C-alpha cells in the first residue's frame, strides 16, 4: 500500500505513521528522517541540504524531491510505503505522482489526521517544555497551525477529488486512533 499522512503539527502523525506502517509491514518515511539520514551519510544531497538547514532555511523542493525519489527507490519501499511530511505542496504532489508513474503506480490512500486546535496547542506546548524548545510559544504554534491549514487545504482538495482521502479523528487514546486509521484504510 502507498499512503500519505496529512495532519497538523501535534496531531500525532509521527506516532501513528510508525504504528500503521508496522501493522502493514511497510516503511514509514518522514522527510525529517530522510534529511537526517542523508546528512549523517554525507551524501551529495545531504551535504546540500545541510547548507540550508545550518542557515536556518527551508531545504528547497528540488533537493527534497530528489531525496524522496531516492528513498522510494530503496528495496524496502517496493511493497509500499507511508509518507509522513511529504508532499506538503501541490508541486510536490505532482513530483510524487511523476515518481510513482514511472513504475505504473499511484498513491492509494491519504489519511488526514484531524485534531482540535486548542488540544494540539496544549500538546505542543507540553512537548516544547519537555524538550526545552523555548521558541515554541503559543503564538508561534498557532501560526504554524495557520500555515499548515493554508498549505494543506489544496492537497486535501486535490487528493479528495481522486476519492482517496480518509479523515480520521486524531483525538483520544493512541490505540483508538490507530484502530480508526486501520478501519478507514480497510473500508
What does this structure look like?
The chain is α/β, with parallel strands linked by helices and 187 residues long. The protein has one domain: P-loop containing nucleotide triphosphate hydrolases (Rossmann fold, 3-Layer(aba) Sandwich). The chain contains 8 helices and 5 strands, in the order βαβαααβαβααβα. The protein has a 5-stranded parallel β-sheet with strand order 2-3-1-4-5, sandwiched between helices. The protein is globular, with a radius of gyration of 16 Å. The chain starts with a strand and ends with a helix.
Summary?
59% of the residues lie in helices and 12% in strands. By secondary structure, the chain is an alpha/beta fold. The protein has a single domain (2-30, 80-186), classed as P-loop containing nucleotide triphosphate hydrolases (Rossmann fold, 3-Layer(aba) Sandwich), CATH 3.40.50.300.
Percent helix range? 55-70%
Estimate the global geometry from the Cα principal axes: globular
Q: Into which percentage range does the β-strand content fall? A: 5-15%
- The gyration radius over C-alpha positions equals 16 Å
Number of helices: 8
CATH superfamily: P-loop containing nucleotide triphosphate hydrolases
Annotated CATH topology: Rossmann fold
Largest sheet: 5 strands, parallel
Q: What is the level 1 CATH name? A: Alpha Beta
List the secondary-structure elements in sequence, H or E: EHEHHHEHEHHEH
- The number of E-state strands comes to 5
Q: Assign the CATH architecture.
A: 3-Layer(aba) Sandwich
Q: Pick out the low-confidence regions.
A: none
Biggest sheet strand order reads 2-3-1-4-5
> What is the terminal separation in angstroms?
14 Å
- In round numbers, the mean pLDDT is 92
What is the structural class?
alpha/beta
Task: Give the total of domains.
Answer: 1
